[in-house]
Amino acid sequence: MNFHTRKWVKPEDLNPNGTLFGGSLLKWIDEEAAIYAIIQLGSQRVVTKMMSEINFVSSARQSDIIELGITATEFGRTSMTMRCEVRNKITRKSILTIDRMVFVNLGEDGKPAPHGKTEITYIRDQFKD
Fold first, then answer.
1. What is the pLDDT of residues 41-65, one digit of tens each?
2. Beta-bridge partner residues of 45
3. Could you give the CA distance from residue 92 to residue 4 in angstroms, rounded to a whole number?
4. Distance between CA atoms of 105 and 47, rounded to whole angstroms?
5. Does the predicted TM-score (pTM) go above 0.85?
6. Domain count, the chain
7. Which intervals hold domain HotDog ACOT-type (predicted)?
8. How far apart (Å, rounded) are the C-alpha atoms in residues 98 and 83?
9. How crowded is residue 106: how many other Cβ atoms within 10 Å of its Cβ?
10. Residue range 104-125: average pLDDT?
């Protein structure tokens, strides 16, 4: 799994315990996963269908730098499944894991539409002449 997105944990991201608020982290994950799905499926019309169990393994504190790793694990006719891990950039300690996140490609009518993809593509390969 590649870890490309990094976030700096700031005071506004903390819960009353002084650790990273789970809602902030889930927002970052959902946004990053949506961007990943948009790039992989070549469509701006993708939505979150579901996330499996979210396993908070450890905490992050103010000033920690965390990194998000997302990778595609399966392509359906209209969907794409991914998995995610978040870890501390410096210590590499796992903070969170999600085994399954499913995103669905939508047509102009707002209903699931085939995307025609079957495997991971990389940006360097998408824009070759």
1. 999 999 999 999 999 999 999 999 9
2. none
3. 14
4. 7
5. yes
6. 1
7. 1-109
8. 6
9. 17
10. 87
Instruction: Place 128 in a pLDDT band, splitting at 50, 70 and 90.
Output: low
> Residue 48 carries which side chain, given as an amino acid letter?
T
Q: Give Cα 105 distance to the centre of its chain.
A: 16
CATH of the domain at 109: 3.10.129.10
Residue 84 has pLDDT above 70, yes or no: yes
| Tokens read off for 72 | 């595609």
Query: What six digits make up the tokens of 70?
Result: 């997302």
Domain span at 78: 2-125
> DSSP states of 19-69 as a string?
BB-HHHHHHHHHHHHHHHHHHHHT-S-EEEEEE--EEE-S--BTT-EEEEE
Which amino acid does the sequence have at 106? L
What are the tokens at 61? 């504190």
